[in-house]
């Protein structure tokens, strides 16, 4: 039933059809406190259940019978069932935060909309963003060695925000210049970021009560203000009239709308996608860059290999302010190191699908109405997928070892709902890492603490010791 290599292995049952003899159900009885344990520490929740029950097991998270899947074939089944035997199955509060015009709300239009959005975040357009990415990072890290102890995540987050707002919205927000906020319903970057935090807190609010006293209610109010902000940005961009489809993500959407007013890009879709793309890119990339730096601080031998690769790629011109797309493509060990960081510290689960029909795979029955979660915290620590999964080993992603195959390595999801900004995340992280490797030595200080849910990231108070290289 799938357009994949295991198509013939997935048996889709019609209503009332009896499963084959000998079919079993996933192990483990769902427990009343599964939601609380998962939210408190998703890594620990997945590891404990993997050890006891294997890579596929039953839970009851967010009020529904939910099957966690970590094996490659089960993940493939979950990713590729859209419009056949699965549908998107995020909590109701999360769907409300995504909004009526998000890609998730219309599965019948998802592929069309996603294909229309992709050119603004991939290929030649993404290559064209690299001078700006380099420039913002070079300026942003100038004062990093003063003081020598750096609060890692806040320092990275500040730079990532300044990278992404021009690339996604086509505007620069400068707190020292009030004119940049003229006619916008916010007066500072701090206010905009605070709205985003309140908005994100509402995604998994446990109560759907629309009140200022609930995270969900506050999240909806923040969402409304963010849409108002995006509407004002779109108005400003139209008034300015500088619409170059290769200059930034919003310009791409506005140019497509001008070319085909009755096409994919309604005003509501544009505003909603601006809100979601800035939110997702900012949180994901800031978390990835800071996690990468934390990981590297523990492995000086990996830092040395990365610097040797950088010297080989750059040749005699080894001290540069501009890493080109061509340079980045040659840095295969750097890409492998970023992938290994994503394997060790995946930011979140990557798929949540509800079964619209019962299916059988490898003798296991997945019943209609159950939710499937494809969980990288399971897939990335399975020995059949990765040799010695507890070891930080970037070389596992080099061609010689060839680990990290499709459906085994899933930091950005897969199938029709794979992350739209995955390529941008990799490019920004590569450029960021390249400049930091060139400019600084750094080492870990105390044991880090992480925010665990809904996205895993270092807590703001974690510091590294950093020294400018001569």
From TrEMBL:
GO terms for biological process: sterol metabolic process. Belongs to the cytochrome P450 family. Keywords: Heme, Iron, Metal-binding, Monooxygenase, Oxidoreductase. Heme binds at residue 419. Its cofactor is heme. This is Cytochrome P450. One of its GO terms (molecular function) is oxidoreductase activity, acting on paired donors, with incorporation or reduction of molecular oxygen. InterPro entries: Cyt_P450, Cyt_P450_CS, Cyt_P450_E_grp-IV, Cyt_P450_sf. It holds the Pfam family p450.
